[in-house]
Design goal:
Layout: H1 2-21, H2 28-51, H3 54-58, E1 69-71, E2 74-76, H4 79-86
Antiparallel strand pairs: 1-2
């Protein structure tokens, strides 16, 4: 029985050590690229909102997995109802 627990402990420790080594680390250059991409997408969204261009800003909402939106006391369960109300 001690052999079984020894093998189990060794297996679990090996698994944990193996998982730790596969951790992804980002360089400063990677972080800057990600930050720039997020900033660019945010600026596109703000520009579309400022132009009140509903088709442009509604692209930022998921087409397939739109869950809901709430504005004050109104509730919208579909993306088309939400876009129609805003436009």
């Amino acid at each position: 029985m001690k052999t079984f627990y020894s093998i189990l402990l060794f297996s679990v420790l090996s698994l944990l050590i193996g998982c730790r080594q596969s951790e992804k680390t980002f360089t400063d250059a990677d972080k800057e690229v990600i930050k720039k991409e997020v900033t660019d997408q945010f600026n596109l969204l703000v520009t579309a909102l400022n132009k009140k261009d509903a088709p442009a800003w509604s692209d930022f909402y998921s087409k397939d997995e739109f869950i809901s939106a709430m504005v004050m006391t109104d509730y919208y369960s579909s993306k088309s109802a939400w876009v129609d109300t805003i436009t």
